[in-house]
Amino acid sequence: MTDPNLVPLIRRAREASTHAYIPYSGYRVGALLRAADGTLFAGCNVENAAYPATICAERTALVKAVSEGYRTFDLLIVYTPNGGSPCGICRQMLYEFAPDLRVLLVDDREAIVYDGALTDLLPRGFGPASLPDNRSQGEDGARTVDTVDSTKKRRGNGRR
Ligand SMILES: [Zn+2]
After folding, report:
1. How many whole angstroms from 127 Cα to the centroid of ligand 1?
2. 27 in helix, strand or coil?
3. Which residue, 126, 124, 137, 133, is CA-closest to 158?
4. Which of the residues 17, 33, 110, 124 could staple to 61 if both were Cys, CB 3.0 to 4.6 A apart?
5. How far away, in angstroms, is 129 Cα from ligand 1 center?
6. Residue 45 Cα, ligand 1 centroid: separation in angstroms?
């Protein structure tokens, strides 16, 4: 049985899918990303006539969150009609900020078809800690270092 605390979150992920712009695939996706402080960000997939310009629901939610100053996340719920899994690009973008993310995949019955770690979806992922320490640090570099440091701290495998 589904954790009752998750039910409203699953509903919100599904509701987000109602805004999907999907004239080409017809594949409706909704995502709900929870920041460490509990703030929720919803996203849907937004397709484009130039197909590669399409953005997935998961990345929509992530870029909304990051653009509002949020960088740590603990939960992602993805709704698709058939319990589909995040694409590789989304797995990679999520790994940048939340390698320890818990991912729930739900389907039309609002049943959880997957409840696991992002690292199981993206084993041996490439993240900020994978880059050498002497990388260039521009205006955004300082922030990247913060992300790297917190990632290393959480995992307890930092070299510093
Ligand atoms: Zn994707």
Report:
1. 17
2. coil
3. 133
4. 33
5. 22
6. 8
How many separate domains does the chain show? 2
Q: Which of 58, 68, 96, 110 is catalytic?
A: 58
Q: What's the pLDDT tens digit per position in 25-39?
A: 999 999 999 999 999
Model confidence pLDDT, tens digit, residues 2-18: 899 999 999 999 999 99
pTM: 0.84
* Angle separating helix axes 57-67 and 7-17, nearest 10 degrees: 100
Whether 141 is in a domain gets the answer yes
Residue 58 is a catalytic residue: yes
Query: What digits encode the pLDDT tens for the residues 125-136?
Result: 999 999 998 665
135 and 107 in a common domain: no
Alpha carbon separation from 53 to 50, 79, 124 (Å, rounded): 6, 21, 27
Which residues surround the ion ligand 1 when the cut-off is CB under 5 Å? 56, 87, 90
109 CA from centroid of ligand 1 (Å): 22
Please give the angle made by the CA atoms of 122, 98 and 107, to the nearest 5 degrees. Answer: 65
Ligand 1 center–CA 41 separation, angstroms:
16
Same domain, 145 and 156: yes
Round to whole Å and give the CA distance between 21 and 23: 6
